[in-house]
Write a structure and sequence with these properties.
Length: 700
């Protein structure tokens, strides 16, 4: 056996290994066959289309197990079960296939069934459920050494989907399909909207107490689709209906361990009805002319309710005499309301190829939206501790209309030897208006009365080239420039345009400019050595003109991305792959020169990985993988604000041994070690973890 090729997806880091011979490397299934040196062997090659993989494993953690679960997506306890199952067969011209897995105590289950009768139809159904974990910790305040642990931080969210689908595949008839799906999310997850505390060694109030989200969401979807081909034209018509119910909460703890300790629960209950109808057509008139078009209409009705209540525990009963509410603690009760959205979208695309070396594709897209909504609630604001909370009946109404017209022109030229040139222009023009009203029914006044018109312009110009100067070398270059400008005209504004604190009343013009250039080299230095190098540079500026003020550059964002990957196969039984990425990402703002509460923002980091594999014998191979991550962006400005910025270091190493007892039976043994040191959390999120795993694969 031998390794024939290794590739790696640049962004995801997925390793793809091609191996000749009847053998399996860790996590990669290869076809059964003979070694290249035994090509002349007359032994028949047996192909196995079905398999069952059984596995068991466990995690042993020292330190913060909740952070490990969130980062590595493993539960910190023993787990095991049917890791992967596939079975397919044919009978009476029909095709039957089943797939699935069930990993117990990792809460990961999947099953899929498919029955196909060619030229008649098909039937499918399935179920998939999995769990993701979250660390419910808050922030760390270094000046006082404060770190709050207010609840069980071992949070998790269960996600699932069940579906059933059937379709007709009759010859010369339209293809028809009907599908029903039920999706859900249920559980708790962490939130970075942290609560406040004054236990800061006299530095005032800071927001670093942990909060969590309670999620209970369900969605039912019915889809129908009809497709048909008439001569050179493909036609399609689709319908989609969705009904969803959300009952979510945001749970905040304010001033824990203080006399004013109080809980806040914001509840959002939303029901939506969505209907969509869409149609499309594609026509290939000849080899040089291709036309496609589409239209979609969507309407959605939303009903909402909810509350924001203060109390001595999460999800409390409203008490107007709750003594620990502080001045201007704002909440609301009995929220009711709803909204409606109508959206029309149309597009038209034409591809022309006047010459074999040149193609041009113009397209246009038009989108129109109408939104309107209204709501009412009782605002509850504390006026003074130990006094009844003040209550005010409020009504809101808004209307929004907008239309966007987008054009694109793309051209590609291959007339130069070893060159592919392309260019693209994107333009969007949009306009809209927004009407907002807020009524105070308690005193009969209109607190907000505002009419705002806006105009939006977006331009993006892209040019690039693929160059193949050598047989072993190709170079990809690309540059784009993007401008997005929005201007606001506040025809009516009861809040006062100058100095208003309600978006977008204080903005007249808002502009974003972005320039991006990137280059990639793929060079096969030797027959068994390949290098991939990449550099990406991006700079974005945000310019803002506020009411009564001149234009100012409110921020500048600069990003550099450098990546390098080497793949080396010194001989047929061994491979090595190494990669490193370095990212410099910084945001500058005039605010960091005015106040230390808003420092220069940085998101710089680098990571590296090394993977190697060796085929010990025709029945045994070993693979090792190492990963490293480092960020150093923490800035302690506790005297002026809340310190943010990630500074952490992670290491991970896994070693996998695979042994093949026969063409049908193989065994895998894996060990992994992971470590994390997190300075941002004051070391509270540090962990060391050991992974032990074993699996058996049976093919039949």
């Amino acid at each position: 056996m031998k390794i024939t090729s290794i590739t790696k997806h640049f962004h995801t880091g997925v390793l793809i290994i091609a191996i000749s011979a009847s053998h399996t490397l860790t996590g990669i299934q290869s076809a059964s066959g003979a070694d290249a040196g035994d090509a002349a062997s007359s032994e028949p090659v047996v192909e196995y289309d079905n398999w069952a993989n059984f596995s068991v494993g466990s995690i042993f953690i020292e330190g913060d197990e909740h952070r490990f679960q969130e980062r590595e997506k493993f539960k910190s306890s023993p787990y095991g079960g049917l890791e992967d199952f596939h079975w397919e067969t044919q009978f009476d011209g029909n095709y039957l296939e089943m797939d699935g897995h069930a990993i117990f105590d990792n809460d990961d289950y999947h099953f899929r069934f498919e029955l196909v009768r060619p030229e008649t139809g098909y039937f499918r159904f399935g179920y998939h459920e999995y769990r993701t974990w979250y660390d419910g910790s808050g922030g760390f305040f270094p000046a006082s050494g404060r770190w709050f642990s207010l609840f069980d931080e071992n949070l998790h969210m269960d996600r699932g989907r069940a579906w059933v689908e059937t379709g007709l595949l009759l010859p010369d008839w339209p293809e028809i399909s009907l599908k029903y799906s039920h999706e859900f999310r249920d559980g708790r997850k962490s939130s970075t909207v942290w609560g406040d505390s004054t236990l800061t060694s006299g530095l005032g109030s800071r927001g670093f107490t942990p909060t969590f989200l309670g999620v209970d969401e369900k969605r039912d979807i019915i889809e129908a689709k009809v497709t048909h081909t008439i001569d050179k034209t493909d036609l399609g018509l689709g319908l989609r209906y969705e009904f969803s119910e959300n009952d979510d909460t945001r749970n905040i703890r304010r001033n824990p361990s203080e006399a004013t300790d109080r809980h806040v629960t914001s509840r959002d209950e939303i029901e939506t009805d969505l209907f969509n109808i869409h149609a499309y057509s594609t026509t290939r008139f000849n080899e040089r002319v291709f036309l496609s078009s589409g239209y979609a209409f969507t309407t959605m009705d939303t009903d909402l309710s909810g509350s924001r209540i203060y109390g001595s525990s999460y999800d409390p009963v409203y008490d107007p005499l709750f003594a620990r509410r502080q001045f201007n603690d704002s909440g609301f009760l009995e929220l009711t309301g709803g909204s409606r959205l109508d959206q029309h979208t149309m597009n038209l695309n034409l591809m022309l190829t006047p010459k074999e070396t040149f193609s041009i594709t113009p397209s246009i897209r038009v989108e129109k939206e109408d939104r309107n909504g209204m709501s009412g609630f009782t605002r509850s604001t504390a006026t003074f501790p130990f006094l009844p909370t003040g209550e005010t009946d409020i009504g809101l109404r808004s209307e929004r209309e907008m239309i966007d017209v987008s054009e694109r022109l793309e051209a590609r030229y291959t007339g130069f030897t070893n060159w592919v040139l392309y260019a693209r222009g994107d333009w969007t023009q949009g306009q809209g208006d927004l009407s907002e009203r807020e009524f105070n029914f308690s005193n009969g006044t209109t607190d907000i009365f505002r009419e705002t018109d806006d105009e939006r312009f977006t331009y993006k110009y892209t040019a690039g080239a693929n160059w193949y100067p050598l047989r072993q070398l190709n170079i990809d270059l690309q540059y784009y420039h993007k401008i997005h400008d929005t201007s606001f005209d506040h025809e009516l504004d009861s809040t006062g345009n100058a100095g208003a604190d309600r978006y977008p009343a204080y903005i007249d013009v808002l502009g974003f400019d972005t320039d991006d250039a990137n280059i990639r080299f793929t060079y096969r230095i030797l027959r068994n050595l390949t290098s991939v190098s990449r550099y990406d540079f991006q700079i974005s500026t945000v310019d803002q003109t506020s009411a009564g003020l001149s234009q100012v550059q409110s921020s500048e964002i600069t990003t550099h991305i450098i990546g390098q990957t080497l793949t080396y196969i010194p001989w047929s039984r061994m491979y090595l792959q190494a990669g490193v990425n370095y990212v410099i990402d910084e945001t500058e703002s005039p605010a960091d020169e005015i106040t230390g509460a808003v420092p220069e923002l940085k998101n710089n980091y680098w990571n590296g990985s090394l993977t190697t594999g060796y085929i010990l014998t025709d029945a045994t191979d070993i693979q090792a993988h190492y990963f490293y991550y480092r960020a150093d962006n923490y800035y302690d400005n506790a005297g002026a604000g809340m310190p943010y910025g990630a500074t952490s270091e992670e290491h991970g190493i896994t070693t996998t041994l695979t042994h093949k007892f026969s063409d049908q039976l193989s065994w895998t043994l894996k060990y992994g070690f992971f470590t994390n040191n997190d300075e941002t959390s004051g070391g509270h999120n540090d962990y060391d973890a050991h992974l032990v795993y074993s699996g058996i694969q049976y093919m039949f």
